[in-house]
UniProtKB/TrEMBL annotation:
InterPro entries: AminoTfrase-like_pln_mobile, MAIN-like. Residues 121-312 form the Aminotransferase-like plant mobile domain. It comes from Rhododendron griersonianum. Pfam families: PMD (PF10536). GO terms for biological process: meristem maintenance. This is Aminotransferase-like plant mobile domain-containing protein.
Amino acid sequence: MSSFRAKQPAKSQTTFSDEIKSIIKSEKPAINSEILIDCSQPRSPTVKIGLGPAFNGNFLESLYPFYPLAEEALPFTYITTDWTAYPRDIPNRLWHRPDKQYVQWVNCVAAAKEGMWKEVGIYEALMLSRHLIDMDKALFMAAALFWSVSSNSFHFRVGMMGITIQDVSFLTGLRPHGVRADCFVSQKTPSFTYPESTQLAYSNFLKCFAGEEGEEVTEEEHVALLIYWLNKCIFCVSSNRITKEFTDIAKALASGQKLALAPLVLAHLYRGKQELLTNKFVFAPGPLWIITLWFWSYFPTLAPKMNKKPAHACYGRHYVGQELQQHDFDSCFTYFYRELTTLGKGYTPFERDTVPLWLKSPA
């Protein structure tokens, strides 16, 4: 651990929030505190709904330095598509769908590497990747209309809400702490050689490196599985095929390094959410399946019904195999707009007696 100690801010130092409050107080603009605001033009046949709270009139120029996206048009100002009639179960083609071959590969390698995966802090996430996380389309689409690209948060009547590093860790089992997982992670061993570019499609890559059942798991196969898992299951890369972006991270994990993957995953999630809205749900990379798990955890009224007490240390695995609630877009939208009125200060859906392995033994 570094011995560097950050300088503590002076008590009189003005915070980001204080500066904004000061500007608004001094200029006293009219503010509409509603969550959804009618932005329709007079005599226009088109109904446009904007996301609030917002100023009545023009945005304060003095606040532009704090909100650089305020000058840009929001991607959703009105509903243009009947998402409930969308023909696909999962509109986003990058959403992770595990096939039989992948599940078998994970099971085979797990027989040799389970203990090591638990020590590193990736076991629960790898086990979770063997299952399809249903998008719960009606819930996902309805909640997305309350997402602000300016604040990177959901605007509900209970206040602004967003996914945190803690949420990612509890839902996936990934570590929030440890060696920083970024481009500076360097690992020379174990060695790994990529096949020809024609073999980088997911199915071809799997055929190249997945061993037969009963065979000894080589370090090359181990690294290959982690590369596949990071690309397809965790980060759901935009190329929809194997990239070399996560090679060093995979090698570091295979060598036993305890990486702080949760912050990196969260960063990709927020970037993916932005692209999903901009592209109107047609295409977006990132671990967006975590958002559905987050919805189910924080809003149990809309979550799959649990038949028994959760037995896994990874909250995401609690929902595997559970029957989805039969709700439509309208009922989900109504819940977020009218019925969600309180959660309680500091609310968290995660119980202390069901925690990831890294929290029980954080070393």
